[in-house]
Amino acid sequence: MTDTNIHKGLAGVMVDTTRISKVNPDTNSLLYRGYPVQELAAKCSFEEVAYLLWNGELPTDEQLAEFVEGERSQRALTPELKAVIDALPVTCHPMDVCRTAVSVLGAQHPQADESSVLANMQKSVSLFAAMPAVVAYDQRRRRGEDLVEPRDDLDYSSNFLWMTFGEEAAPEVVEAFNVSMILYAEHSFNASTFTGRVITSTLSDLHSAVTGAVGALKGPLHGGANEAVMHTFEEITTSAGEGDVAEHAAGWLDAALADKKKIMGFGHRVYKNGDSRVPTMKASLDKMVKHYDRADLGELYTALESAMGERKNILPNLDYPAGPVYHLMGFDTPTFTPLFVAARITGWTAHIMEQLEANSLIRPLSAYDGPEERHLA
Ligand code: CMC
User: Which residue positions are annotated as catalytic (predicted)?
Assistant: First the structure.
């Protein structure tokens, strides 16, 4: 039977089942394959969580060792991919580089159009292994710095930071980065994941689906918000006159709301009482503020959050604490959303494989409200 009601933005529409993650807005909880994300962030490496998302269970020591070996052996940029990245202007957004890189990796893949579970699992691990080098190298080339080769004696997060900054990061920085990757890894039928599932539903290939997902993530209403948060902080800081930080933040916010602007890093389609991932990321932000001795950034964070709560009663989402965490670590602001890509590759590809298990072409209807039928003279 045709449902003729319009579901703008598909809000509140249940599209399919998933076993990968469960978002419960009533209890502000998020489970990956049944495990609370906070527990995973506290006790697991990102490699273990990636394995969990793809396989449904955490790895045994033996399985993890095999998985890690496979991942570490595929970390280096191929000369062909490096040449493509070098050909892109440094004026383009780093998300354009990510999107292009995924596409190139697809074209290079020996089993590009093979969609067996084994082939898709191998492609997923390859993408997971390769994205850090893409993101790290792109930030470096924009700064006029040379490529830093990956190290296979470092875990995923340590190696990511190593390739970006060319030095080993402090353990607390590695830990905060690992937490951010885990929190960003998966979030059910969000816009980019759904994009990936739509593309997969046509029986297109995994890299095409991920390329589309990267495009969806780029927008500021989705992944682009972590970058936008930092722009907000910069605007508040540079426009600051007399008075304390709370006054500057409130003044900036009042002007932005009067202009009907959306405040990036706040609000969520599903969580209306707070994003389940924020307390964990905020705890990491507090550690980073202390580590880098940047109490000023912590104060600005709190000031804007309070002002937004007072005026709109809208709470922060994950992008709000993640943006300043990445800033403190030394990432350039436009690199923040590519970091989200590196994490979400896991969730996207898990969904792509799940979509193929019981595929049905995703093809909704539209209610036509254009001109009545008419004819050429
Ligand atoms: N700033 C100002 N007002 C807001 C915001 C915000 N960030 N979020 C919601 N509102 C207001 C909105 O203006 C509307 O007010 P009114 O009813 O008076 O028109 C009301 O709250 C409902 O908002 P909505 O836009 O209908 O809610 P939605 O569920 O469609 O939007 C959202 C969810 C995430 C698109 C929106 O909250 C937003 O634009 N937030 C800023 C962008 C952002 O931080 N995105 C990251 C989302 S979470 C992580 C991720 O997926 O990447």
Answer: 268, 319
Distance 267 CA to ligand 1 centre (A): 5
Shortest CA distance to 122 belongs to which of 132, 131, 112? 112
What own/partner pairs with CB < 8 Å and gap ≥ 24 does 65-71 have? 67/125, 68/155, 70/125, 70/129, 71/47, 71/125, 71/128, 71/129, 71/156
Domains of the chain in sequence order: 21-221+333-357 (1.10.580.10), 225-329 (1.10.230.10)
Say how far apart CA 377 and CA 370 lie, in whole Å.
19
- The residue that leads in pLDDT, 180 or 239, is 180
Collect all residues with Cβ–Cβ distance below 8 Å to 126 and sequence separation of at least 6. 74, 105, 109
291 is catalytic: no
- The token duo for 371 is 């001109």
Q: Is 109 a catalytic residue?
A: no
Is the Cα torsion angle 160, 161, 167, 169 positive or negative in sign?
A: negative
Per-residue model confidence as pLDDT tens digits over 285-340: 999 999 999 999 999 999 999 999 999 999 999 999 999 999 999 999 999 999 99
Ligand 1: residue of 260, 268, 275, 336 to mutate (most ligand atoms within 8 A of CB) is: 268
